[in-house]
Design brief:
The chain is an alpha/beta fold. The chain contains eleven helices and seven strands. Strands 1-7-6-2-5-3-4 form a seven-stranded mixed sheet, sandwiched between helices. It has two domains: 1-50; 57-264, Glycerol-3-phosphate (1)-acyltransferase. It has helices spanning 4-21, 29-50, 66-83, 111-118, 130-133, 138-144, 155-171, 199-204, 219-222, 240-245, 248-264; strands at residues 85-90, 101-103, 124-128, 148-149, 175-178, 208-214, 228-238. Helix 1 (4-21) packs across helix 2.
Length: 265
């Protein structure tokens, strides 16, 4: 059952029941439905935020806030449901049991949400642009779940985020995901890679998972019309010793080649 269904049914019950109880015109049904949906989801976000409101963004996490981890998964699954995304993981058996860094191409703003849902049991947190982490309530929840901002316009701040992500991997706080392109591609073609992204795996002595995502860019053309199958294919897993033996530029080039071949299929 889709997670969004209970919210829809509660809102529908309110929209159909309240006009009769309060002697409103049934023309109020649609506004009541929309208001109920908004209040239910806002209340959910508020409850999740209350579970992690004491997070200090100036300090690295000692461990993830359980309420934030559960909350991000609920929010991600709801948004995927509303967007009609149906994630499928190919090659999941290749993933290591220890924390890892996963790199992937970027085609849609829904890609991280899809990754959270598809790889839920692998506890993935993502490195995101600073503006996403500044969204009220959501930013605190994301940080408490292990998400980190990266400011690619400021080398010192970017390095700080890279070192913090490596620390999370090394201490087993969570696995980390990053998009080496830095932003989503509007054309579907791979953008230039930021080689610095691969320092995370090197500094943490962690496995590097190279993946490719297909189909998420179709969601905006199908929204609310039909489901969109999105494939996340695990292409290769480089063990820590191989990651350390290669330069970040070599890792970036190797990852890019694998993704290009996979996306051509």
């Amino acid at each position: 059952m889709h997670l969004a269904l209970p919210f829809f049914l509660i809102s529908l019950a309110a929209a159909l029941g309240l006009p009769g109880l309060c002697r409103f015109s049934f023309w109020w049904a649609l506004p009541l439905f929309l208001a109920s949906e908004l209040l239910l989801h806002a209340g959910l976000v508020l409850v999740i935020w209350l579970c992690c409101r004491r997070v200090d963004r100036d300090k690295p996490l000692e461990r993830q806030f359980p309420g934030a981890v559960t909350g991000t998964r609920i929010i991600a699954r709801l948004l995927c449901d509303y967007g009609g995304l149906r994630p499928v993981v190919l090659g999941e058996e290749k993933l290591p049991k220890e924390p890892f860094l996963i790199v992937c191409n970027h085609r849609s703003m829904f890609d991280p949400l899809m990754g959270i849902v598809a790889l839920e049991k692998h506890n993935i947190s993502y490195i995101s642009k600073p503006s996403n982490m500044q969204i009220p309530l959501i930013g605190d929840i994301a940080y408490a779940a292990g998400f980190l901002p990266i400011d690619r316009e400021n080398d010192r701040r970017a390095l700080k985020s890279i070192l913090q992500a490596a620390d999370y991997l090394k201490r087993g706080v969570c696995s980390m995901g990053i998009y080496p392109e830095g932003t989503r591609s509007r054309t579907g073609e791979l953008l230039p890679f930021h080689a610095g992204s691969f320092k995370i795996a090197q500094r943490a002595s962690a496995p590097l998972v190279i993946a490719a995502i297909r189909g998420s860019e179709k969601m905006k053309r199908r929204l609310f019309l039909r489901p969109t199958r999105v494939e996340l294919e695990i292409l290769e897993v480089l063990p820590p010793e191989e990651v350390k033996a290669m330069s970040t530029h070599e890792l970036a080039e190797h990852s890019r080649e694998l993704m290009e071949k996979a996306l051509e299929q």
